[in-house]
Amino acid sequence: MIYLETPRLILRSWKESDLLPFQEMNADTEVMRYFPDTLSYEDTERFLANIKTEFNNFGYGLYAVELKATQEFIGFIGFHWATFEENFTPCVEIGWRLTQGAWGNGYATEGAKTCLQYGFQELDLSEVYSFTADINYPSKRVMQKIGMKYVRHFAHPKVDTDSPLQKHVLYRIGKIE
Fold it and tell me: What's the pTM?
């Protein structure tokens, strides 16, 4: 099922054929440099099962993304129900992860803008958050480009205290009436 289209992207349901490139993307040390670790193939299978569960529970989730021109799977963009312990959770988070070959083309911004529009107009979300390691400048730039506003820094409770990734930045956008 196709959920959303942009001029260059299709955001859709996950297919069986997405699993191997998804596993490869999550095992790529460069793609995962702002996460505590890469994901094993088994971890990615569990992650995908969780994505599908969120679709069943909420009617939205992290959409598989493919290029319109080639039908190539390039990652995910979409919504996630964040539940770790913080004063802004539980909340709807918007996030993205793309293969290295897709970087630098504006795909994350293009897809995330469309997701926000869909989330506010069709899903009737009132607010959406995004967060990342403070040193993840590319994702912070996407957050700014899609209209999100800086809220504050926080120490991510699921990241080791001695990790350079623990210091996170929080962004938010509310529904525009």
Answer: 0.96
